[in-house]
Design brief:
By secondary structure, the protein is of the alpha/beta class. It contains nine helices and five strands. Helix 4 links the parallel strand 1 and strand 2. The longest helix is centred in the last third of the chain and has 22 residues. About 35% of the residues are buried.
Length: about 260
């Protein structure tokens, strides 16, 4: 394995994950882990917690209310010298996690009387998408613009979203028009919005069924290799093949530029 010191500066410039200054450590996360270290028992447990404390983690923005916290974290990271890589996960699509409900989001395409999402209702998800555009995508893009050229940023775009449209078509909550519209319109909007405001931000996407015709040069395609699985049902096989062809194409356009390969091959 090559050490960072042996990598050329051109490789570092092309691949933000090779930042020689390392990754930003979140002070809040370190404080939380330190509270566990204080009461840890056993050499192994304490050593593992200490390792966790000094390991960078992505800053998750899975609620609109966390955008303000993202701003504070970006300001803290930008104040460091030299600048370290800041990694964030952006995760708040309408009808999020349509299949498993393990990480149900706050934005609905349509709402039940009790305030929960009516995921089975068909439609264009216009209201949900408008909320996503104005209250999630736009303010995040504006934040990134403030740090354009000042801080290396990687944004992981809406994991656990587009793959659901390829692998869970048997679930009406994923197959209906509203959820499809939310995912297929929300993801490209966020990508294009960030790229227009902060073109130096590198974006990593899930396996894509729909993506910009000409993805920005800062767009990496990093599939989750075991997903979609090989035992897909017959009705999902065709979308899966299209997904793989597009994944390879995106990898050639974006991933290879950054020195990474398409994990789905």
């Amino acid at each position: 394995m090559l050490s960072l010191s042996t990598l050329s500066m051109s490789a570092v410039a092309d691949n933000p994950f090779l930042n020689p200054n390392g990754y930003f450590l979140q002070p809040d996360f370190q404080t939380q882990v330190q509270s566990s270290i204080t009461g840890c028992q056993g050499v192994t447990e304490c050593r593992n917690l200490q390792t966790m404390k000094n390991t960078s983690t992505a800053f998750w923005v899975d609620k609109m209310s966390k955008i303000a916290d993202l701003g504070k974290a970006l300001a803290t990271a930008a104040a460091a010298s030299p600048p370290q890589l800041f990694v964030t996960v952006l995760y708040d699509l309408p009808n999020r996690d349509c299949d498993a409900f393990n990480s149900v989001g706050e934005i609905c395409c349509y709402t039940n009387p009790d305030g929960s999402c009516d995921r089975a209702k068909d439609g264009d998800c216009a209201a949900g998408l408008q909320t996503y555009y104005q209250n999630f995508s736009d303010p995040i893009a504006a934040l990134f613009k403030q740090y354009e050229g000042k801080l290396p940023i990687v944004a992981i775009i809406e994991p656990d979203s587009l793959p659901n449209l390829a692998t869970n078509l048997g679930n009406p909550n994923c197959a209906n028009m509203a959820t499809s519209s939310a995912y297929n319109n929300g993801v490209p909007y966020l990508i294009k919005n960030i790229n227009a405001n902060a073109p130096s931000v590198t974006m990593c996407t899930p396996p894509a069924l729909s993506s910009p015709r000409r993805p920005p040069p800062s767009l990496l395609h990093l599939p989750h290799a075991p997903w979609p699985p090989r035992h897909l049902s017959e009705h999902a096989a065709a979308p899966r093949r299209r997904h793989r062809r597009r994944a390879r194409r995106l990898a050639r356009l974006g991933g290879q530029r950054a020195g990474v390969r398409d994990a789905s091959q």
